[in-house]
Amino acid sequence: MSGIPSAEGFDSTLTLLRNPYGFISQTCRALDTDLFETRILLRKTICMTGSAAAKVFYSEDKLVRQGSMPGRIQKTLLGEGGVQGLDGAAHQRRKKMFMSLMGTEHIAALQGMSLHMLDNYAPDWEARNEVVFYDEVREMLTRAVCAWCGVPLPEAEVATRTAQLTSLFEDAGAIGPKHWAARLARHRLEKWSARMIQQVREGELQPTQESALHVIATWRDLDGAMLSPKVAAVELLNVLRPTVAVSVFIVQTAHALHRYPEWQEKLRNDEGLLEPFVQEVRRLYPFFPAVAARVESAFEWQGYRFPEGRRVLLDLYGSNTDPRSWDAPLEFRPERFRSRAENPYDFIPQGGGDHYTNHRCPGEWIAISQMKAFCRYLVNDIEYDVRDQDLELGTGELPPLPENRFIMRNVRRRG
Ligand code: HEM
């Protein structure tokens, strides 16, 4: 049995921060391997890329999540006690709660709410000279997802809640004041969210039975007990936050329509291309670089030994652009999704494996449905110019967005 190849240097934290989307796949390629060992934040870590690596990463018996997430990410992005840190039967039970929200009709209802927002916002865009598209989408999605979840959102709170939810996913990985801003946002949001959970339990708030607020407030874990208000608050935010984060994918969709303008006409003429188009955006535009787990008990894979307790990082972006799985992987080619057989391990922008038994994102259908709705609206319902601006996606921030957040001008509604 051979040892796992090592990356250069003692610790790779800085190299990873400088090149979050390329570090793992490029190092693997240089070492001609699917995996290598290094230190991240001084902790020994095995980094892996590609579909074979994803398959082992998602084998429930080998790798677990408890204790794998850096504390600073838990205190901002995820919160403590949520589904992301559970394993085995406890995870499967809690995951059912999220999956019960993902019925086709329920997701269509959320899409309808966003389309309603678009119709409400578009006249205002027409009246303005310029529109910062990302800011508009974040606000629309905050309104839509709160309504969908049964969360009351007074008009006076819209801007604050939008900013707080954004801070959780934009500032989580930051160092310094932004990180502290994200912690404060989490503290305030959890207080708000826990109060609503209590109000539902006391009958003061009566959201519909199928709404996320009702489902989470009344959910019982394996021990038969309801979630503590704090954990229920974390789980409610696990629906609100990432749905607002879909704004990133939507701006990336607008970016792709601008960069590949020939697709606008194609999409107008053939509805069937909408899904391949947004899938290609999810594959090629960077969002989550990697996910983390921990070795439960020592095992061997491909002749390499994974010692107990070792942290393992799976490269999501590099797997989505792995030349072994994708022809011309860095080219934007939505057609590739027209006839592609589904494989749970090679297309993993929101994690891989099985939605029920693994940690794969339960919100994939929400993301796809929202992206399709906004994409269809951009190509069919409005015309706009894209202001001359730097449209490079700065990889200095996670997730990467154009510096000016995609400014549109001269928005006109089509007749
Ligand atoms: C903005 C687009 C989104 C991206 C890029 C994204 C990405 C991810 C990723 C990478 C994971 C981790 C997978 C793993 O650990 O193996 C995840 C998990 C999760 N996502 Fe999403 N997600 C998005 C949208 C959503 C939406 C709309 C929801 C709403 C329900 C959601 C809820 C969750 C939850 C609850 C988990 C934890 C699942 C578990 O631990 O079993 N996400 N997501």
UniProtKB/TrEMBL annotation:
InterPro entries: Cyt_P450, Cyt_P450_E_grp-I, Cyt_P450_sf. Its cofactor is heme. Its EC number is 1.11.2.4. Keywords: Heme, Iron, Metal-binding, Monooxygenase, Oxidoreductase, Peroxidase. One of its GO terms (molecular function) is oxidoreductase activity, acting on paired donors, with incorporation or reduction of molecular oxygen. CDD domains: CYP152. The keyword Cytoplasm does not apply. One of its GO terms (biological process) is sterol metabolic process. SUPFAM superfamilies: Cytochrome P450. It is an enzyme of class 1 (oxidoreductase). Heme binds at C361. Belongs to the cytochrome P450 family. This is Fatty-acid peroxygenase. The lineage of its organism: Bacteria, Pseudomonadati, Pseudomonadota, Alphaproteobacteria, Rhodobacterales.
